[in-house]
Amino acid sequence: MTASAEAACDVAIVGGGMVGASLALALASLPLDVVVIEAAEGLGAPHPSFDTRTTALSNGTRRILTGLGVWSEIVRDATPIRRIHVSERGRFGSAVLDASEQQIDALGYVVENRVIGSALARRLREARNVRVLAPASVTAATTGADAVRLELEAGGEARTLGARLAVAADGANSLVRREAGVGAERIDYGQVAVITTLAPERFHDHVAYERFTPAGPIAMLPFGGGRVGVVWTLSPGEATRVQGLDPAAFAAELQAAFGWRLGRLGAPAARNAYPLALTRAAAQKGARVAIMGNAAQGLHPIAGQGFNLGARDAATLAEVLADAGAACDPGGAELLDRYVEWRHADRRALIAFTDGLVRLFGTPFPPLRAARGLGLVLFDLCPPAKSAMSRLSLGFATRLPRLARGLPLVAPESATQAVAP
168 CB contacts (<8 Å, ≥6 apart)? Predict the structure, then answer.
């Protein structure tokens, strides 16, 4: 392995998944030299995060993606969620959230990750002041007074990159977070999500179903071509067993657990399984390091808010840097404190909300199980509660970043781009 001379940049984003790529695009409008470091062969379809799994995009995230200039491409393959139906197997009571009642077009949009990734990658290739190093991996990170020194392996070469700000967007097992001395708590839910798509007998009519069962929740998300995206949460042993079933047997067991609201369920496409856990970093910053996305928090998919929370991380950090001006030190302690303080309430509340849902609907305690059904009925009869829940897609922060409000990150006349050396 050969070594190359040390390079430098203003911001190094470690991790080119959906959150890291979104941040890079947001920063492309600022006079900053930005480098994205990605371990996969390249951004877009080959990236392991940009596969056939689906993501439910909130309205706030739709606005962020619009501000980044990619929503017009994504929307062609996006399926709107007009209603959300929540129920519990074997119990009375259900609740329905309807977009029309909230006077909005949709409660969210379901999109394949590969579609989001391809749109972000194409846009990034047009950004003059963003460089992408891929495949490249960070092997060490050392913080100095003025920069974080990143040791890289890229193309058979050992490289060194000095960044005034390093962004940890490299997933739940983030090396950059760990090298910054920031620990993370991991709570294993003892559950596995089996994910697939299938075509039901009845058209989904743009309804997303959340069905709670004794084995775990089942989500059915409306998808293109009349299909639905399935997220079936099971114990590890049960997940292994149903993964081994032939397609007809798998569909029959899913039918028995979910019910007949969509008519007979067709044979599933390819099935994948992912263990579920809550990961939570002790902080969202270290010295000259900002932590975001799954490196900051990994959520249970029960509420479909993982990427939406990470997108707000990216939009917030971009706004903090934009407001600080061209002469700022992007890794300065004051700016990072501003980012952490802004994200604190949204992050804490959404983690608690998601974890609380898992525990509430996972307990077999009979009185609590009965109360859940009554709670769903009362919720369904309470318009203010429905309005509050529909605002979940914008997060729990008292102040939203401009991109999430549909506003430009910076005024057009002040947006200048620096050409990467």
Answer: 14, 15, 174, 176, 177, 180, 289, 290, 291, 292, 295, 296
Inter-residue contact 345 to 396 (CB < 8 Å): yes
Q: Which structure tokens are listed for 81?
A: 């969620």
For the chain, how far is it from start to end, CA to CA, in angstroms?
25
> Within 13 A of 74's CA, how many CA atoms are on the CB side?
32
Amino acid at 340: V
Both tokens of 390, joined, read: 């529909």
Q: Do the Cβ atoms of 343 and 19 come closer than 8 Å?
A: no
Q: Which of 105-119, 175-189, 273-287, 344-358 has the lowest mean pLDDT?
A: 344-358
Instruction: Give CA torsion, residues 207, 379, 362, 183, to 10 deg.
Output: 90
Structural domains of the chain sorted by starting position, each given as residue range(s) with its CATH number in brackets: 2-78+111-186+280-361+394-414 (3.50.50.60), 188-275 (3.30.9.10)
Q: How far apart are CA 59 and CA 66, in angstroms?
A: 10
The Cα–Cα gap between 82 and 404 comes to 20
pTM of the model: 0.88
